[in-house]
Amino acid sequence: MAELHVELVAADRKVWSGKASLVVARTSSGEIGIMPGHQPLLGVLASGPVTIRTTGEDELGKDGTVIAAVHGGFISFADDKLSLLAEIAELSYEIDVERAERALDAAKADQDAAAERRADVRLRAVAVAR
């Protein structure tokens, strides 16, 4: 099976690294799916969930899908190597749902569109992972 090597990196840490058969992310031009053999690309990541269909065992010893909430950054693909360089990225299982819900409520009350978008992306990433 063909695979691509994926690196998901946030400004403060390496979030996830491994082999995948498909990665779906939102860019400034819309949603994009990357599979092995895709044409090279460089794009701007938009805030949204990123879905990584893994081909090997993850840190929990399971095959499957990794979901991350990503908040801005860049996506680069060449030679079956995909780099997702995010300003902020969190794996779905790292997200505290109650805290994200409180943040969403507070952002709505304060009419803070950026904070509302961040909280919404976190909650969507958790929902996709379930």
Mean of residue pLDDT values: 90
Strand order of the largest sheet: 1-2-5-6-7
Summed up, the helix count is 2
Number of strands: 7
Proportion of strand residues: over 45%
Task: Write down the Rg.
Answer: 15 Å
The residue fraction in helices comes out at 10-25%
Order of helices and strands: EEEEEEEHH
- Give the end-to-end Cα distance, rounded to a whole number of Å: 26 Å
**Biggest sheet: strands, sense, closure?**
5 strands, mixed, barrel
Task: Estimate the global geometry from the Cα principal axes.
Answer: globular
Structural class: alpha+beta
Low-confidence sequence ranges? none
Descriptive overview:
This protein is an alpha+beta fold. Helices cover 24% and strands 49% of the residues. Strand 1 (4-10) and strand 2 (13-27) form a beta hairpin. The two termini are 26 Å apart.
Keywords for this entry:
alpha+beta, five-stranded mixed β-barrel, 7 strands
Brief digest:
This protein has 130 residues and is α+β, with helices and mostly antiparallel strands.
Task: List the SSEs and their pairings.
Blueprint: E1 4-10, E2 13-27, E3 30-34, E4 41-45, E5 48-54, E6 65-78, E7 81-91, H1 97-110, H2 113-129
Helix pairs in contact: 1-2
